[in-house]
Amino acid sequence: MKTILIMRHGEAEPMQADDASRALTPRGVSQASEMALWIKAHYQPDALLVSPFDRAQQTAAQVIKHNEVSYFEVCKDIVPSGDARFAIDYLETLMSLNPELDTWLLVAHMPIVSYLVDQLSPGDMPIFTTAGVAVIQYDEKTRRASFLKIVSPSL
């Protein structure tokens, strides 16, 4: 069994013309740090896939600050307008190529984070708070997943 954690970035600056450049607010940095510590206490991510957008990169930086990650990749497929089906196919390919990595963390955006959960566990499409983390158990042999819970920061 593998664990897949799907995390939305922390609170970001208001919408701008260049959505990709929006940074985390101070509250967003605190949210990301809180959830990075929660991840460390409950799951040690081996691998991290992160959107190229600034706010996701800043959220991932908090995770890396508190967790040792052996595989890291910027993934252009998990941007807000990305195709969740394609992204999950890519994730499953990476998992099969790296069988020693048991816990995968994806840091992305609404709405794709909800669609990613639904692709893995059809019928489960949670709404993520900023810096929320969905926990999914994944059986790589059967390619079936179970959505366990979503955890949100207290901030």
UniProtKB/TrEMBL annotation:
Family annotation (Pfam families): His_Phos_1
GO molecular function, one term: protein histidine phosphatase activity
InterPro entries on file: His_Pase_superF_clade-1, His_PPase_superfam, SixA
Cellular component terms per the entry's GO annotation: cytoplasm
Gene3D superfamilies in alphabetical order: Phosphoglycerate mutase-like
NCBIfam families in UniProt: sixA
Protein name in UniProt: Phosphohistidine phosphatase
Organism of this sequence: Pseudoalteromonas phenolica
